[in-house]
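ZP: hey, is the flavin mononucleotide complex queued? I don't see it on the tracker
AM: it wasn't, my bad. submitting now with these inputs:
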Amino acid sequence: MTRQQHLGWFLARGFGPHGWGHDYLDWNYDWTRPDLYVESARALEQAGVDLLIIEDAPSLGSPETIDLRVRQAFGGPKHDPLLLAPYLFAATQHLGIVPTVNPAAVLPYTGARQLATLQHLSGGRFGLNLVTDTGSARHFSDAPPLGHDAAYDRAEEWLDGVRSLWRSWDDGALIADPGAVGPGGTRTGGRYADGGLLRPVRHRGEHFAFDGPLNALPFADGADGEPVIVSPGGSGRGLAFAGANSDVQLALTPLTERSVRDYRAKVHAAARASGRALEHVKVLFAIKPVLVSSPQEADRLVAASANPDDGTLWRIAEQQSSDLETDLTALDLDKPLPTGLFGDHVSHGSIKRLVGEHDLATTPLRVLLGGLARLGRIADRTGWVGTAGEFADLIEELGEWGNDGVLLWGDLHPVTVHRTLDELVPILRRRGILRTEWADGGLRANLRAF
Ligand SMILES: Cc1cc2nc3c(=O)[nH]c(=O)nc-3n(C[C@H](O)[C@H](O)[C@H](O)COP(=O)(O)O)c2cc1C
């Protein structure tokens, strides 16, 4: 039987000048204003996309590599996506909005209150993409950055703390009884809340110390009414975090049956170890469609990408230098990377994306970058170039392997949304893969509907 799949959209370059250098900038949208996102969010909702995730990093990165990050706007500037969310809620009715939050940058009490406010404002359509990047540490204190796993430990402590604040109003604490209207129209006996049922919450942890209770309303459905937690870390520690804590895990992995099943099994093992229901953790595999109108056009694009010129390789090196906060443009294209080039703060996932299955010690940089330049066909699972029908085949096949959904990865612009979805959505609907109606109860209810 065809299995329905969830669709997410990932605005991969954050709330910034994403799309810089592309022709669609000529549409004259201003990335600092809401219209671009509002129009795109409406189109996503119309298409049946469950959630829009907005990438973020609070920092422009280390002082030595700032120019690499801003030169082509690969790594900034970026505005705070939490503050964009209300514009998108106001323009839609069902779409989940999920900005990225880094626990290093937000105190648990402040975070719990802001996120609760957004969850109430949106009628339960809010979520946060919880990340553990430590490259921004210097903006928040003079303590040295945490190591990779320690940053996950901190994120877990942060989330536990935030949840304890969200749960600091016991059942019955919110009364909201206006009382009775007596003779003469005077109101008597009303009571809004019972302060005796608010828990003090005293948190003294390794990374945070704060007291409650939270000065914000509790959620009507208890824990099921809390903002949805999304996580993207692909390391062993990242998958363990997802299984224990997340409603949605964003997965970047080759889309072979074995790797998809392995990835899901690791997340599920961690969920099981934490006593969670496996169907409460949805895994969305990232796909970056390059849609073309015919298989022949796809073959032409793929063939042309096999021999990238040096200019193309330098452009990729610039983008990678921004992502890895490591200056690849200063290296010799024909030599392997120097040992110890990447600091501990650099994402394992990003390094793996560059290196792939190559031997880091012996492979020239040209070959690594050439690997990123090379396009492949979706039809044989070597890349992302294909027709809408071929993408629908992939999404359907993922469902046959037990998968929950896919994450469409790209800029957010009406042009990119329509280019990606105009043909794909009708095919998915005809095959019964894509939702045709919304659940009642916000983002978590939509995620749990299938
Ligand atoms: C789909 C996806 C989305 C991501 N979004 C962000 C993001 O918005 N901000 C960020 O700092 N890192 C983001 N990351 C990177 C990981 O969260 C980051 O590498 C993490 O801190 C450590 O990951 P690791 O467990 O893979 O080593 C994303 C990764 C993936 C695969």
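AM: back. The first strand starts at residue 6 and ends at 11.
ZP: great, adding it to the tracker
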